[in-house]
């Protein structure tokens, strides 16, 4: 897959899956805008690993609706355009219904939905304005196996990712005639900071053995599915959800 000259924005591109995506696109000739939240050091380190360029850093809290238009404008200015967006930034938080207070329950739903679902909706809103006026583009959203398998200890997370899947498919139908194509990558556990405490804890082996491969995914394996959906040749896969979970959960 060749991304020579393509301009790519990756939310949460500084660490984990987003970092692997940034590297995969840059290796194939793309110019990358790395969005991050607080950790400027990690963002700079990731930028320094990228081949080619120039690549830029775009700091913004994607859960703040007021910052999204500015993030897209900064990316277009910095890269000279925008061809591909990867909505990767996401958070998880345990909030069992039988243990948390009603206040914590409310706060967690608000927070998780704002980062994992409403933020991608807002990014797509502004990115698609630009893409529509400039011949089209590609949008790939990073969801989760939890959307299908259930997340009993973090239902807001499962719901946010199921919503992301449904939104992607609705907009794939809506935007295809504008030459804007969308897809989802739904990983199981991936070896990143987000999963680190679970993977190194008492549940670690149980989680790894959910897959017949006896391990979880590497971020690069998720990035490969992302670049597949972002490629010119994958146009007819619009609306697709690709599972990257090592056969740990097979949906019908
Ligand atoms: P990670 O290692 O925790 O990295 C998260 C990235 O998102 C960082 O770059 C972080 O920036 C950024 N970020 C977080 N909140 C943000 C916000 N409000 N605005 C802008 N950037 C923000 O995460 P990951 O494991 O790579 O996960 C990436 C995606 O994959 C998420 O959507 C996650 O739900 C999904 N996923 C992960 C797993 C897994 O096991 N890891 C499994 C299934 C799905 P800073 O560095 O500045 O904090």
TrEMBL record:
Gene3D superfamilies: NAD(P)-binding Rossmann-like Domain
Protein name: SDR family oxidoreductase
Keyword Cell division: no
TM region positions: none
Organism: Candidatus Desulfolinea nitratireducens
Keyword list, A-Z: Oxidoreductase
Molecular functions per Gene Ontology: oxidoreductase activity
Family membership noted in the UniProt record: Belongs to the short-chain dehydrogenases/reductases (SDR) family.
GO biological process per UniProt: monocarboxylic acid metabolic process
InterPro entries, per the entry: NAD(P)-bd_dom_sf (IPR036291), Sc_DH/Rdtase_CS (IPR020904), SDR (IPR050259), SDR_fam (IPR002347)
């Amino acid at each position: 897959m060749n991304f020579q000259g393509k301009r790519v924005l990756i939310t949460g591109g500084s660490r984990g899956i987003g970092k692997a995506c940034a590297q995969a696109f840059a290796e194939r000739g793309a110019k990358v805008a790395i969005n991050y939240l607080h950790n400027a050091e990690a963002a700079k380190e990731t930028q320094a690993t990228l081949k080619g360029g120039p690549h830029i850093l775009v700091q913004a809290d994607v859960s703040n609706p007021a910052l999204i238009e500015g993030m897209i404008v900064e990316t277009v200015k910095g890269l000279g355009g925008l061809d591909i967006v990867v909505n990767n930034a996401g958070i998880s938080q345990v909030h069992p219904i039988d243990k948390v207070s009603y206040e914590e329950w409310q706060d967690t739903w608000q927070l998780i939905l704002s980062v994992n679902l409403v933020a991608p909706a807002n990014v797509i809103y502004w990115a698609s304005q630009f893409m529509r006026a400039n011949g089209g583009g590609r949008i790939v959203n990073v969801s989760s196996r939890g959307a299908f398998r259930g997340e009993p200890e973090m239902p807001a997370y499962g719901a946010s990712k199921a919503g992301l899947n449904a939104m992607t498919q609705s907009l794939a139908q809506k935007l295809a005639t504008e030459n804007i194509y969308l897809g989802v990558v739904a990983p199981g556990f991936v070896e990143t900071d987000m999963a680190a405490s679970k993977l190194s804890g008492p549940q670690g082996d149980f989680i790894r053995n959910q897959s017949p491969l006896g391990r979880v995914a590497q971020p690069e394996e998720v990035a490969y599915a992302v670049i597949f959906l972002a490629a010119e040749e994958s146009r007819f896969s619009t609306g697709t959800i690709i599972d990257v979970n090592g056969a740990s959960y097979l949906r019908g």
